[in-house]
């Protein structure tokens, strides 16, 4: 895809892409962003002014972005931006067209946009339009929403999809402030990862300002029939009207979480903290867009059992949004710290028993990934060269990262570790940090302070080697002891399913009960469980997921209607992908998966489509 306005000359640039190719086997250049073509070390974009119109008929955003730039290298005049499937119509500086060239697209990275700037230009304007199949946006028809009356749009920029709706330097090393004017059909409301005014007049023109510099992956927009309900002085929820009450109730502890977290880890630096409840096709559980986390509706369980997700997205306000991973190789600095903080927040709000149960479940997820991932992919500082940045999504950056921090906590003491974290968030506030910079920081702080408790070798083992280092902490929960006994007694034929006393079981105990079943169960056993506990009809999406995994592994057909319904009504990848993977292992399962996928595909997010189509074709 090459675009060049007729009156502009094509820039004389070589076609060599900046990032490394897939066959690059040399050593990693630390701090280099292999997932961006941009050249911030020469010219840095510091601010964006967006003016975009959302056209729901064409499924396109169109308009302009103005970029403020600073020369990091005096005299540099070639600005390189990231784009993906964008139609770049015109680039101007002070009203005059300037030459630009869109390079041939790389499958993972999109197309580099080269712009030749006049000397001393400090601002440029790009007129552009997105593609209806932009990887970072999902356009939903009214039928795909809760209300069924109005269309919906949401963006999901992490990891490298901002470039599919804005031409920019799409690297977490680069931070920008932004303003936006978003034009929508009158009856809809637009919200962004910026200042949102819940009382704004619904007139189809919405203004936003994000005065704090953020990495591009945190730029986010949603448009729909949204209403707002406050949950506390600084917290509230946006959702479609029919979801609003239930969401506000489910997440009513958000304000307490916010207060507890800032008491431990320093002031919340982002003004308001609101939640946006998305339609069920949202491909993630949550996304930490600043001031406005995007949340899947699949966690509204009615009993707050799945609200760790909120603690997680909130925690990113410190680890991720304030201190940011410099490249996607360093994702564990975002997700590992955040997972560690999530456990701590859950403990502060719901107590130690919940903390322990969630830690055990997380640890088990980690062990499952370690059993199935290649050793290369078990490394915290993962080598992603030539790979899709979304490939980093496993429990390694999350749970292995958190376990590493838990070990440090246990070795030096919790209070000392909290003091360290508080200082770390302050020292790196509004900065992007590499794994290597983090290690260097550890050396001057904790390693110097606690030389008899911590060692550089052990830290390298955690960060650069696969697996879990021997002697790592193993989370334990008392609440799971009787669940193990019940499962054992039932499997051993010493107790019928009806006799298991599950009355006081929490959702976590149910998950532990199901996730630790042997892989093979017979029809009689499956039917006994289902008859006693009505698992096929569980309203809790996580319990349903665990049960459906068992059903697929054992071809338990009475659950397949529910399975079909589940796969065609939920787009959260973490919930559907393991089911597709499991189904694809048999011919019959694959045919079933294909039927569900074909029906669901039109409603799935582009990321859910690409993550699962390989299983059905
Ligand atoms: N930032 C992530 C989502 C993400 C990570 C998107 C990497 C793209 C690339 C978000 O905070 C997250 O971790 N979501 C999890 C939450 C869970 C671990 C509680 C999810 O969506 O499942
Ligand atoms: Zn996260």
Automatic annotation (TrEMBL):
Name the enzyme group at the top EC level.
hydrolase
Asked if Protease is a keyword of the record, the answer is yes
Where in or outside the cell is it found? Answer: Cytoplasm
Q: Does the keyword Lipid metabolism apply?
A: no
* Major place of residence: cytoplasm
Q: Which GO terms describe its biological process?
A: proteolysis
SUPFAM superfamilies, A to Z:
ARM repeat, Leukotriene A4 hydrolase N-terminal domain, Metalloproteases ('zincins'), catalytic domain
Which family does the similarity line name? Belongs to the peptidase M1 family.
Q: What is this protein called?
A: Aminopeptidase N
